[in-house]
Amino acid sequence: MDISKLIKEKIKQDKVLLGYKSVMKSLKSSRPELIVYANNLPDDRKKMIEHNAKISNVEIKEYPNDNVNLGLVCGKPFSVSILAIRRSKK
After folding, report:
1. H or E stretch including 37?
2. What CA dihedral angle connects 21, 24, 26 and 31, to 10 degrees?
3. CATH number, domain at 17?
4. Could you tell me the CA-to-CA distances from 12 to 6, 41, 60, 65, 74 in Å, in that order?
5. What gap in Å lies between CA 16 and CA 70, rounded to an integer?
6. What is the pLDDT of residues 53-68, one digit of tens each?
7. Residue 13 counted as domain residue
8. Span 21-50, pLDDT tens digits
9. pTM metric for this prediction
């Protein structure tokens, strides 16, 4: 599935957390299903996310465009550098 379509679908289902602090918090507590970050995310933040995702065993994907385009895909009037897709409750 195309990553843009997946993000739009999960936004409609209210399964997305936006922003670095929210993603870090979810990595430490709820273990999201997937993390998507913009291709212009600063290296220090990227390394921190990758490290914590590896510990939590969470998949990470790089969005092929910058944070402005990621914000547009999310339907937001602001840029989004990183987002987490929460797991569905069983």
Report:
1. strand 34-38
2. 160
3. 3.30.1330.30
4. 10, 24, 21, 21, 9
5. 13
6. 999 999 999 999 999 9
7. yes
8. 999 999 998 889 999 999 999 999 999 999
9. 0.91
